[in-house]
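I'd like us to work through together how a protein chain folds, taking it slowly. To get us started, please write out a protein record for me. Label the sequence line and the structure token line clearly, so we can match residues to local backbone shapes. Once you have written the record down, we can walk along the chain together.
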Amino acid sequence: MNYDELFEGDELPVETLDLASDFVRDHAAELGMEAGRFSSREEAQAEGLPDQILPGVMSMGLLARLLLRSCPQARVTRIGTTFRGLVVAAQKATLHAMITEKNDPETSCEVDLWLETEAGERNVIGTATLDFRTLA
């Protein structure tokens, strides 16, 4: 989608992900985050957690990827998230984004973001800025 196609209140296409244990473990390892809580259910439970969890930075990366897949000609110039709960592996999750404000002079958009679990919990919420100016 390009800037002219977006309007305040528009939702970007939702992305559903299977947060399989191997997917989480492999991505965490690529991030250099090989702690037990990110590797397996058993190791996470040994640390006192209910199950294997996603690293917070992985959740942020997945939300940024959603933005760039929906608006490939834009740059994410700012992203900030709040973690309201653990994102547990071995479940499906949906990634959402909604345009909340357009800045015509800057050709940019403010976006609300959230990761929603199968149970309907929004465990990661945040905001981002998309810049649609042509890169030189």
Summary: Strands lie at 15-18, 75-83, 92-103, 108-117, 122-131. The radius of gyration is 16 Å. The domain at 3-20+54-131 is CATH 3.10.129.10 (Thiol Ester Dehydrase; Chain A). Residues 56-70 form the longest helix (15 residues).
